[in-house]
Amino acid sequence: MTLIGNRYEILSKIDSIELNTLYKARDVYDNTKVLIKIIEHENNIHEDFVSNLIDESTNIDGIKSHYIMKILEVGVHCTEDTVLYYIVSEYCGGIGLDKIISGNYLHLEAIIGIATQILRSLEVAHAHNLYHGDLKPSNIIVDKWYNIKISDFGVTKANNGVNLRLDNNIRYLCPHQLNINYTDIESDFFALGIILYECIFKKLPFEKGATEKEMLKFIDKGVNWNEVKAVNGNEELINIIKKLLSRTNKYTNISDIIIDISKIMYDKADIEEEIIDDIEEKSRNGKIISPKKFLLGTAVIALISFMAAAYL
């Protein structure tokens, strides 16, 4: 049994531990489940990273958001070959959004629900002068009811605002992160646009660049919207994505994004009323209700209920 920090046992059945991956683990001190991520020291990691992240974890704990994963401990694990940092977070069930995107079709209601929760997490974080700076699907844990928890809040800020670029993953970084290593709330908006694009089309909007310069070139080239096709009435959501990824006509605050997402919700509410009226009429007349319409009605009702709860 290999213990990380002489305390945490990886529960996943693996031959070797992959760096930069969120694992389920057991705290052997009190026999509780936690989540743990192990990061190898690299040149772009600031010397005060660990102490800064401990401070940020205290700030995150004070936020008390349902959507932000709490950091329980930050430490250093040394081996014969290298220095590793480990980040222990509260346990939550579910899988990474990246696995859902790669393995399943995400219907519009689920995407809107996930987007709304991400926005709520960013809203409260930004109100506390905290950005994420490294939003990507693997950092978003989704349970079977599509409730989410976002990990790694505070990590980029603890590194003096410089994204760690783990595994050289720069595909979710905004232009000014790539260009001058500057991270702010607009960085989170840009990453959200990429994530939502990926949820709909199951691919990333820009080609993969091996370096910051190449990635900037592909972003400057832009998205060929003529090559992608809106399905299942998601045109309004695509318009939001376009604005999130725009270099000029872009969002500058969370409220505007939430308002635009809400408009989609209200459109669905109108559809809901029409569907319910039709279902009730057919029920009164003893007619058969199509399974597709029934499922659509229940899905829309669930979406409206979720969105209403999110704004309470």
TrEMBL record:
<dbReference type="InterPro" id="IPR045269">
    <property type="entry name" value="Atg1-like"/>
</dbReference>
<dbReference type="GO" id="GO:0005829">
    <property type="term" value="C:cytosol"/>
</dbReference>
<dbReference type="GO" id="GO:0005524">
    <property type="term" value="F:ATP binding"/>
</dbReference>
<keyword id="KW-0067">ATP-binding</keyword>
<dbReference type="Pfam" id="PF00069">
    <property type="entry name" value="Pkinase"/>
</dbReference>
<keyword id="KW-0472">Membrane</keyword>
<dbReference type="GO" id="GO:0004674">
    <property type="term" value="F:protein serine/threonine kinase activity"/>
</dbReference>
<dbReference type="GO" id="GO:0000407">
    <property type="term" value="C:phagophore assembly site"/>
</dbReference>
<keyword id="KW-0808">Transferase</keyword>
<dbReference type="GO" id="GO:0016020">
    <property type="term" value="C:membrane"/>
</dbReference>
<protein>
    <submittedName>
        <fullName>Serine/threonine protein kinase</fullName>
    </submittedName>
</protein>
<keyword id="KW-0723">Serine/threonine-protein kinase</keyword>
<keyword id="KW-1133">Transmembrane helix</keyword>
<dbReference type="InterPro" id="IPR011009">
    <property type="entry name" value="Kinase-like_dom_sf"/>
</dbReference>
<feature type="domain" description="Protein kinase">
    <location>
        <begin position="8"/>
        <end position="265"/>
    </location>
</feature>
<feature type="transmembrane region" description="Helical">
    <location>
        <begin position="294"/>
        <end position="311"/>
    </location>
</feature>
<dbReference type="InterPro" id="IPR008271">
    <property type="entry name" value="Ser/Thr_kinase_AS"/>
</dbReference>
<dbReference type="GO" id="GO:0005776">
    <property type="term" value="C:autophagosome"/>
</dbReference>
<keyword id="KW-0547">Nucleotide-binding</keyword>
<dbReference type="InterPro" id="IPR000719">
    <property type="entry name" value="Prot_kinase_dom"/>
</dbReference>
<keyword id="KW-0418">Kinase</keyword>
<keyword id="KW-0812">Transmembrane</keyword>
